[in-house]
Amino acid sequence: MRLRSIPLSQIQVVDPFWSRYQRALVELGLPAQFRQIVETGRLRNFERAAAGERGDFDGYRFNDSDVYKWIEACAYVLAKYPSETLQRDVLHAIDLIAEAQMPDGYLNTYFQLMHPEMRWRNLIAMHEMYCAGHLIEAGVAVLECLGDRKLLDVGIKFADHIASIFGPGKRRGACGHQEIELALIKLSDATGDPKYRELARWMIEDRGQRPSYFEKEFADTEAIALCPAAADLLLHKGQYSGEYLQDHLPIREHSDVVGHAVRAMYFYIAAAQLEPDAELRDALSRTWKSVTERRMYITGGIGPSGDNEGFTTDYDLPNLNAYAETCAAVGLTLWGSALLNLTGNSEYADVMERAIYNGALAGISLDTTHYFYANPLESRGGNARVPWFGCACCPPNIARLIGSIGRYAASISEEGLWIHIPFGMELDLNFSGVPVRVQIDSGYPFESKVVVSVEPASPIEFEIRFRIPDWADNVETEIPGLEAEAEYSDGYICARKLWKPGDVAKFDIEMRPRWISADPRVRDNLGRSAMTLGPLVYAAEETDLGFAPQLFAADTAAEPEVIQSSKLEGASMIRVAGERIFETFPDQLYAETQALEYEEAVATLIPYYAWCNRGSTSMQVWIRT
Ligand code: FUB
Ligand code: ZN
Fold it and tell me: 174 with 133: CB under 8 angstroms?
């Protein structure tokens, strides 16, 4: 990789926006998730597997993964906001997980309780390696953030077990739901052992080759019967089509993003972290373009259809019934981050930021205790976040993203420090052996001014690269001591100089309310515009308008006004002018158009991520103009 993520131990998020979320997760969100984990039997599955019992598995076959993801999220936030009770619950869960592991390293409570003889027979649907991947990720996080390696050792033992069965010269196969690949890469990074990365590489390259090992599983009717509905998703007009799980073509031939959105994202995240050669990079770049130029909501939400929890066709982006799963936006964030680190090109940061602040963040309530699975861009009322789901992938996923948010804001490279998203952070870095503390202060995402204070132990030359977001026409800079004009490269301002103790660089990113139109091929958005401010997409909610936003038409020529407010945790709001239609109408369903009555009106818009925090009223992102 050209860029490297900064270890979380070297990043302190001091930003008010994200700190509030992280603290709320420790105090409310993650304890509440743990209660759900207990009440829904997820922990009991481990207890019973540990006791060698049989039968009575509770919930979905991949429920173990929710526990792992919850642990991962806890590890991130506990490192900053210690909580004795939460830490105790985490350690208790880790003990149970370790006790449940089988002597050969296998660990999956569904199979251990229900079908021990059926292990690894239905890779299409049964998520054994998916769960293993989340276990490994949690183990790495617990070691990195809490200094405890017990869970990682469980993960290593399971990874070794998997490697003893699958791989070159052994059995072909990978999980129907990608995840193990990116986890194995993480495991190599954490242990320094390249064998896990090589196994991931082999799994990634082997998927999509013919004959398909997934297709072969259809002959094992006993195994398919474990989850027939999942297998049905792989058929197209009665023929095998691997699109749902990205087994349609070898990855190097991918162009259009297809199938289940989270699976696709996790696949491409891993591929981007493989040091890809030019051919693989091209495939990733083509597929990235297919997502971000033709199949992505303005919020960074992806996967419009609930039928396959995934992609459909170009420009098919319905608002009202958008699926746009929270996990898919989290996945897009991580893929953007991986490609950003691979290339150093800000176009990936632009999408990453869009997904973080909009499509992903809308998945969690402001108090962090309620969650959306689907993230529509319009509501006619009746939507509500809930405390948990039967299939609960999203709550711990958004929690782990928020817990590790610093990872996406900055990177380092040979050149120096890259600031992708300039929210408040303290970074402990080291350039050429010289410790350097960098502090970033800003009111992001609502304010445009950013101050970067640099404290090297002694003067040291390096570069600070500051991203120019796609939504900003201009970034003003004030960097004392810069000998030449700052250079620009791939969407970054490059400030190379001898940084001395006390140096301060200032940036002012032009941030103004902007009405955005969609490509006319997105039929749902014709005659509509969406409001944005900086990285945020805005929405009109009935709570503020006093009437359904569908009745409102904005005057996009009128000057929008940014309003500072104490509502919604201090989010900036935007007041726009326009007119509303009254619901008075002749006493009949249809009448001549003149019967409609209009009146001038103003609408106060709120950030999309904050919608539905004050009751289940109507909402609209794409507003009639
Ligand atoms: O299959 C595990 C997770 O559940 C997926 O990532 C989500 O889309 C949901 O299906
Ligand atoms: Zn999910």
Answer: no
247 close to 231: Cβ distance less than 8 angstroms: no
Determine the residue type at 5: S
Cα 64 to Cα 326: distance, rounded to the nearest angstrom: 19
What's the rounded Cα separation, in Å, for the pair 546 and 530? 19
Give me the helices (H) in 239-356, please. Answer: 261-272, 278-294, 326-343, 346-354
Q: Give 26 Cα–ligand 1 centroid separation in angstroms.
A: 25
* Percent of the chain predicted with pLDDT > 90: 96
CA-CA-CA-CA torsion for 328, 334, 340, 343, nearest 10 degrees? -90
Residues in contact with 341: Cβ distance below 8 Å, sequence separation at least 6, in sequence order:
1, 2, 3, 4, 5, 411
Which tokens go with 410? 């900055």
Check pocket membership of 64 for ligand 1, CB cut-off 6 A: no
Q: Is 267 exposed, middle or buried (0-12, 13-18, 19+ CB in 10 A)?
A: buried
Give residue-wise pLDDT tens across range 83-120.
Answer: 999 999 999 999 999 999 999 999 999 999 999 999 99
Q: Which residue has the tokens 């027979």?
A: 121
Cα–Cα–Cα angle for 607, 608, 613, nearest 5°?
90
Known active-site residue 175: no
Q: Which of 391, 398, 400, 401 to mutate to test the pocket of ligand 1 (most atoms within 8 A of CB)?
A: 391
Q: What is the pLDDT of residues 504-541, one digit of tens each?
A: 999 999 999 999 999 999 999 999 999 999 999 999 99
* Any ligand 1 atom below 6 A from CB of 61: no
Q: From the CB of 126, is ligand 1 less than 6 Å away?
A: no
CB 233, CB 308: distance < 8 Å: yes
Q: Decide: helix, strand or coil at residue 169.
A: coil
Alpha carbon 309 to chain centroid, angstroms: 15
